[in-house]
Amino acid sequence: MLAKRQRDGQAVHDLNDLFFFTAVVEQAGFSAAARVLNLPKSSISRHVGRLEARLGVRLLERSTRKLRVTEVGRAYYSRCRAILADLETADRDVTEHRSRPAGIIRVSCPTGIAQYGLAHIVPGFMARYPLVRVQILATNRLIDLIEDKVDVAIRARTRLKDEALTMRKLGTGHLIFVASPNFVASHAIPPDPAKCADLPFLSMLEETARPSWKVHGPDGQTQIVVFDPVLWTSDFTVLLEAACSGTGIALLPAQVVKRALNERRLVRILPEWHSETVTIHLVFMTKRGLTSAVRVFINHLAGQFKVVWEERH
After folding, report:
1. Angstrom distances, CA of residue 183 to CA of 138, 191, 308
2. Which fold has domain 6-99?
């Protein structure tokens, strides 16, 4: 309870005083109000007395057998009832908001996962929760949830950092080497990836510095493949189409190239070699205080991602 006190020169009102006063008026007595509220009569009397003392007026005239609301008490009761009704409406609005997810969700995601994951998940989510609006920031830049005002970030990494964030694993995967059948027919591809550096490569890394990949092979072998790309972009669709057209070798997630492999537009090269395990996970600040919209989005994404990412493509 908020007792009467001074703050910056003004009295702080105790809404409990107003609540108990209205209960006494509506129940036509202290004893009846105490029974309805299941509280001692003395507690209710103390609150009403404190309210009258703060206002400096008598709101109720008491006798051993009868209680009468004064003229100023009736006017004050009307205002109190309106205030408490507004509070009840506010509480109900919050409850409805929690039960009916609504509002804007800001989601950051690597471009490739946005294209081949979220693109197939978000429409179904929005159909299920029509009051929720979703903003997707498709970027390979590492997002700071606080500075960038992001509710949920999807990250794909080979090593997890010790972060003060809550994580939820979505899945894992590997990057594999692929090229078009025509490319394979016209280029001699050695079985050792380190000897492929002179071949034309496609890179999903945005930086223009000479890229390299750490790959794992048979018998626990590990190699660093350094190459000069002929094309680099974070757009997986561009890389996929370029690989299918014979522009060069691509190292892409197995889930992204699955359909093209099944359709024979691509073939896997260096089949015994692949990247380190990539973990895809959600990160958000905390489970406590999440809006209902963010909470249902996290649950929906966690439930749908594996099906879409690993089985649909």
Report:
1. 31, 15, 29
2. Arc Repressor Mutant, subunit A (1.10.10)
In 158-298, beta strands by DSSP E: 166-173, 175-179, 201-203, 212-216, 222-226, 229-232, 249-253, 267-268, 274-275, 278-284
The structure tokens 């003392």 sit at 53
Same fold, 103-170+278-312 and 175-275: yes
Phi, psi at 223, each rounded to 5°: -140, 155
- What SS3 state is found at 203? strand
- 8 A C-beta contact, residue 60 and residue 23: no
Res. 108: pLDDT tops 90: yes
**Which runs of consecutive H residues, i.e. helices, occur in the chain?**
15-27, 30-37, 41-55, 71-99, 111-113, 119-128, 181-186, 236-244, 254-262, 292-306
Summarize pLDDT for 294-310 with one digit per residue, the tens: 989 999 998 888 777 76
pLDDT at 136: 94
- Please name the helix (run of DSSP H) or strand (run of DSSP E) that holds residue 206, with its range, or none: none
Please state which CATH number belongs to domain 175-275. 3.40.190.290
Q: Do the Cβ atoms of 121 and 308 come closer than 8 Å?
A: yes
Yes or no: is domain 103-170+278-312 CATH 3.40.50.1970? no
